[in-house]
Amino acid sequence: MSFESPSTDFFRGLDMNALGIDQAYVNITHQLEEKSVYLYKLSADCEKCPFVYHDETGEPIGSEGYNFTIVTHYPWQLRLRSSNENHSVSQFIQDPHELCTVGVNGGEYGVYDIILDETQSCTVVEALEATNSNLALLYCFLILLGLGILFQMLVFVNKKGYLDGLKSILRGFKKSLGFEVKEKPEKEDNNNETSRPPMKNRLKSLDTFRGMSIALMIFVNDGAGGYYFMEHSTWNGLFVADLAFPWFMWIMGFCIPMSVRSFTKKNTALPVILIRIVKRSIKLFLLGLFFANNGNIQLERLRIPGVLQRFAISYLVVAGTSAIIGKYMKPMDTETIRGWRSYVVDIFTHWPRWIVAFAAIFIHACIIFLLPVPNCETGYLGPGGLHDDSEHLPECIGGATGYIDKLILTNAHIYNYPTAKAVYQSSAFDPEGILGCLPSIFHVFLGYQAGQIILSYSGHRQRVTRYLIWFLGTGILALGLCGASLNDGPIPINKNLWSLSYVFATTSLANILMALVYVIVDVKEWWGGEPFFYAGMNAIVLYLGHQIGWRLLPFHFAVGTMNTHWIHLVESLWTTSLWMFVAFVMFKKNAFVVV
Length: 595
What we know:
It is a single chain. This protein has helices at 135-159, 164-176, 204-221, 241-265, 270-292, 307-328, 345-348, 352-370, 387-390, 400-408, 421-424, 437-456, 460-482, 500-523, 532-537, 539-549, 565-588, and strands at 10-11, 14-15, 23-30, 38-43, 51-53, 66-71, 76-81, 88-89, 98-104, 111-116, 122-128. It has 595 residues and is an alpha+beta fold. Among the domains are: 10-128, Immunoglobulin-like (Sandwich), CATH 2.60.40; 249-474, no CATH class. A hairpin with a 5-residue loop joins strand 10 (111-116) and strand 11. The relative contact order is 0.11.
C-alpha cells in the first residue's frame, strides 16, 4: 500500500509505474511542419546556467510528439528551438532560433503537455494531476509523535511504580518456567553510609544533542526517504543533511575544555597529553580512511580525505593548542573577578586560542581569494562547468579549494562524484578536502567556546543566556557574509567549501538547539533525552556501524521497485530506529566505545 501511487497504471500509453521518485512525464507536440524543433532544458537548481540541448535521440521532435521524463525537485525552463547547432545557449542573450520558452513546475507522477502552435506560441497543460509526495512525511511524523508520547507515558508510569504488579507477575511466570530470576532489590536507605555513591554528574543534554546528530546522519545517509531537501544542497545553500557533520565538529570542540581541565586537575605531564591527542587523531584518521574506502581496495584509487579524517586534523590542532595553552595559563576565576570582565570570563579564559582560531580563518581567506588558479578566475567560489553561462571550466569547481586537492592528491584520490557534478557538469571535487580543514578548525574552536561557558558559569540562566547571545551573534554574521542571499552574497553558505558563512550558520543553529535541549533535559528535566541520549554515548559505534550495515539485513531492505517516498521513508526510519536500539542495548550492558 502507498499513499503516493500513480492514479493509474497507464496513461495514454505511458507506463506510470516506470517513473521513479519525484519524476513526471512531459509530452511535446507541435504543428510546425516546415521547421525542425529541438528541445533545450534548464533547471532552476542550476544557477546562471545556459539552456542545454536534450539530445536523447539526436533527432528533431516530430509532429507526432515526443515524451520524456523530468525530475520534479525544481522548476524547469524548457526552450524549443529551430536549430541544434550549439550544445548550449545562453539564457541572458536573445536567441534568434527560439520558438518558445515555457516553465514547468511538475509534481511526482504528473503528466504535462507542451503544445507549440502555428504562431510559435507554447501552452502548458497538466494532463494528469500529480500526487502529493509530502504526505508520507506527515503520516510518519504523526506516527512517531504518537509512539514518542506513548513511550514517555510508559516511562512515567514505570517511575511511579504502577507497573510493579505486572513486573512481579512476569517474574513469577518466568520462575515457574525454570528461569533464574533476580528478585527486585529493596530501595536503599539514603542515610545508609554503605549505599552506592552517586554516578559522576554528566551533561546529559550534550549526549542527547550528539545522539540527535548521529541519528540525523544515519537517516540522511540512508536516503532520508528520497526527499531532496533532506539531502545535501547541490552547491550553495543549507539542506538538512548539511547540518549533521558541522554539529559533530561543534560538539567535539565542546568537549575539549572539559578534557583540558581534567588533565590539569590530574597534573598530567604535557608530553603525555600531547601523545594521547596524537594517538587519538591517528586512530580517527585511519578509521576514516578504512571505512570511507569500504569495498574499494584499489590503492591507486584510494580516497584520502573523509569525514573522520577531517575530525582527526581539527581535533589535533584544537586539542593540541588548547592543551599547551591550558598547561601554562590558569583559567579565570569567576568568583574573584568583578565588573565587566565577569561577563566575558568564558571568552578570555585561555584567550590565546582565539589567535590560533582567527589565524586559521585568515590563512584560509588569503588562499581562496588570492591564490591564482590556472585557467580559472582568482577568488572563484562557484561549481564551474555550466555555472555563469559556462564561463568556467569544469575543473574550476571550488576555485582554490578544489585546485589544491587536485594538485596534491590528484583526481584519483579525491571524491569524484560531488553533488554539483550532475547539475553543473563539473569535475571531481572533495567536500572533505585539504583546504576545508582550516575553517573546520575554527568551527571546532567555536564549539570549544560553548564548552567553556559550562566551565565558567554554574548558573543555568547564565549559560542559556550566553548560548542565545552566540546564536544571535553567529547568525547575524552568517547573514552578513552571505548577504541574506543564496548565491549573491560575498561568501555564500556552502558546505562543500565549508565557507565561513556556513560555519557561522551551523554554529548558530547548534547554539540554539543546545540551549533548548539543555533547558528541557538538564534544567527542567521534562525529558530524559531518550532514545538519543543512548546514541550519544556510543556515537562512534553507530557511525562506523551504519557505514557497513547499509549492505546488510536487517539494517537495510528493499521491497518491490522502491519507487515511492513512503517505502523509502519507512526504510530510512527503520534503519535509524534499529541503530537507536543497538545504542540502547549497549547502554544497558554498560558497553561504551571511545577512540
